Amino acid sequence: MTHPLYGTTAVAGVGLRQFKRGASPLPERSLLVEAILDACLEAGLNPAEVDGFVSYGDDKNEPVRLMGDLGTRRLAWSASVFGGGGGGIAGAFGLAASAIISGQAKAVIVFRALAEGASGRMSAAVMAHHLNDHLLAAGLVSPAQMCAIRAQRLFKHYGVSQSIVEDLVRASYHHARNNPEAVGFGQDFDIAALHTSRWIAEPFRLFDCSRENDGAGALLLVSAEQAQDLAKPPVYLLGCAQGTEAGWGDLLENDADDLYATGGFRPVARDLYRQTGLSPADIDCVQLYENFDAQGVMSLIDHGFCTYENAAEVIRFDNLIAQGGKLPVNTAGGNLAQGFIHGIGLPIEAVRQLRGESANPVSGARTCLLAGGPGAPTVSSAIFANKVL
Amino acid sequence: MNHRLDGADAPYWQSLEAGQLQLPRCASCRRWLWPAGHRCSTCGSIGMVWEERPLRATVYSWTRTWHRFALTEALDLPYVSIVAEIEDCGIRLMGRMDDPSPDDPAIGEAVVGRIDRTRVGDDAIPTIIWSRAA
Ligand SMILES: [Zn+2]
């Protein structure tokens, strides 16, 4: 019995606008409108026909306010995935697909927009979601610190070698080097810069952390049937899972002992693979939300690509790059080196990769896993493919 | 007094104000429950009792902060935050560690606490400050 989400909807267009933090030439909502127009233009769909919108991470752009600019005729459906971090990013696609499959909407934009002037620092907004006196008293006021304290346990209790995060960082910059849209375009990343960059919160130095950009991203999701008639080759959603399970959540650091040094994806990955009938071996590339590099490692472990024990064998530079690696990760540079608009660049790269449009094409790639923001109380993941397997 | 008395963990804050540590357990099955809530997920009972615990713990994890984040202005950089697993009850609490030595805290290391305050804006939040057990 095929799952209702399996191959029944597809991404038909993407749009991305990215600038240095604080340097957007346009207001946040205008950036978003531009990204949506780009996505519709790619697809060859009149933006006025978009009738659904979904976001995540407390995006402040309520879709009803976009109607004028887009010429929206009928706003039939709008929603947001709960949670302040990037945990909901993949879940937004599952939600959009549910609206399409159930006939509540026909053309749904999945979006995220962020400009410092309008929304302030994202890290502050994410924390505002969680901050309480327990955290304030401990001086733990940022996602970097909360992720650092988990990373310490990964390295010092589970003995995962800290050097493997370097391979993830190097692979990200390697990919960004070829990507004209990336922050790291054309730059040679010197790994010494990672070691000598200033401490933020141990074990994280500055270059272990993704740094925010201004920008907006939009992806147009329609039924698989309608996608056949649009301009771009469809990129199908094969499955999506979100949430958490007992023992993980907003628990004042009282998560179950065996889950503490994870990204929180175990139940999500389990459901995603069960739903799609796929396994890690079927995944040709990964777009991995790495707010912090150690959390990216946890996410790969959670999704079954490696274990605490063999992480160092799998998370190697040569294995993570598009040019010959078995597990190409963040082929546009990821949050670390492409740019960080709360992760929305990741599904856009998933789509481009599966269309053969990536700056770092993975030869023969059919499937791409999108892993949402690790460490959030609720997380999500999705699998995309360029044909329904 | 303040917003700390609005939540299910009000007795925790009150106990720190009074110079001791009290933590909640299910009134029926005696399971320790944290964060404080309303209903025990193990046995389904409503209601908790609060019991004093000694300020003794082990280091579950830690980080040393070097960057000046907003809301930490009253803390000298760098400072060490720890997740402390309280002795005999398994509840983990966030706190800070006295960091006079350059040695890193070690996971599993025994620590003892004292109650101090952390200034955040106009507020002074009761805080457990941990030190290496002698
Ligand atoms: Zn009980």
Automatic annotation (TrEMBL), chain A:
<dbReference type="InterPro" id="IPR016039">
    <property type="entry name" value="Thiolase-like"/>
</dbReference>
<dbReference type="InterPro" id="IPR055140">
    <property type="entry name" value="Thiolase_C_2"/>
</dbReference>
<dbReference type="GO" id="GO:0003988">
    <property type="term" value="F:acetyl-CoA C-acyltransferase activity"/>
</dbReference>
<feature type="domain" description="Thiolase C-terminal">
    <location>
        <begin position="256"/>
        <end position="375"/>
    </location>
</feature>
<dbReference type="InterPro" id="IPR002155">
    <property type="entry name" value="Thiolase"/>
</dbReference>
<protein>
    <submittedName>
        <fullName>Acetyl-CoA acetyltransferase</fullName>
    </submittedName>
</protein>
<keyword id="KW-0808">Transferase</keyword>
<dbReference type="Pfam" id="PF22691">
    <property type="entry name" value="Thiolase_C_1"/>
</dbReference>
Automatic annotation (TrEMBL), chain B:
<feature type="domain" description="ChsH2 rubredoxin-like zinc ribbon">
    <location>
        <begin position="13"/>
        <end position="45"/>
    </location>
</feature>
<dbReference type="Pfam" id="PF01796">
    <property type="entry name" value="OB_ChsH2_C"/>
</dbReference>
<dbReference type="InterPro" id="IPR022002">
    <property type="entry name" value="ChsH2_Znr"/>
</dbReference>
<dbReference type="InterPro" id="IPR052513">
    <property type="entry name" value="Thioester_dehydratase-like"/>
</dbReference>
<dbReference type="InterPro" id="IPR002878">
    <property type="entry name" value="ChsH2_C"/>
</dbReference>
<dbReference type="Pfam" id="PF12172">
    <property type="entry name" value="zf-ChsH2"/>
</dbReference>
<protein>
    <recommendedName>
        <fullName>OB-fold protein</fullName>
    </recommendedName>
</protein>
<feature type="domain" description="ChsH2 C-terminal OB-fold">
    <location>
        <begin position="50"/>
        <end position="111"/>
    </location>
</feature>
<dbReference type="InterPro" id="IPR012340">
    <property type="entry name" value="NA-bd_OB-fold"/>
</dbReference>
